[in-house]
Write a structure and sequence with these properties.
The protein is mainly alpha-helical. The protein has six helices and two strands; from the N terminus they run H-H-H-H-E-E-H-H. A two-stranded antiparallel ribbon has the order 1-2.
């Protein structure tokens, strides 16, 4: 399958931790078909991680929960991504979030947090 260039760039930026840019890349192709919950789930995963980085824990929790709900519809794999691994990662992230609505930006940036490297199965 040939994937949109924005999708491939999304994976690259996600792996670099550039979550804000991830949103911009996928939003363009998601806007063409807003019923595509797979793309919406990836968007919300990136937005959730961005919120966490900024200290918006409530927003991170909300977006990660939505990402899990949307991506869970498509497992175990879609568009070359292992959704079982991604869903497991989301659950790890949710459990690593502090039990508050927000934390200072500086604390959020210095807080250890799980990471995930997206890998496409090209077979």
């Amino acid at each position: 399958m040939q994937y949109p260039v924005q999708y491939l760039q999304f994976i690259e930026k996600f792996n670099e931790g550039e979550y804000y840019e991830c949103h911009d890349l996928l939003e363009e192709i998601w806007m063409e078909d807003k019923s595509d919950k797979f793309l919406q789930g990836l968007l919300q995963l990136a937005v959730g991680l961005y919120h966490r980085e900024c200290g918006n824990i409530k927003g991170a929790r909300w977006m990660l929960g939505n990402a899990k709900k949307y991506l869970g519809r498509y497992g175990p794999a879609r568009w070359g991504l292992d959704l079982v691994e991604i869903l497991r990662y989301i659950e790890i992230c949710e459990s690593a979030l502090p039990d508050v609505d927000a934390i200072p930006y500086e604390k959020a940036k210095s807080m250890a947090f799980p990471s995930l490297r997206l890998r496409m199965d090209t077979s």
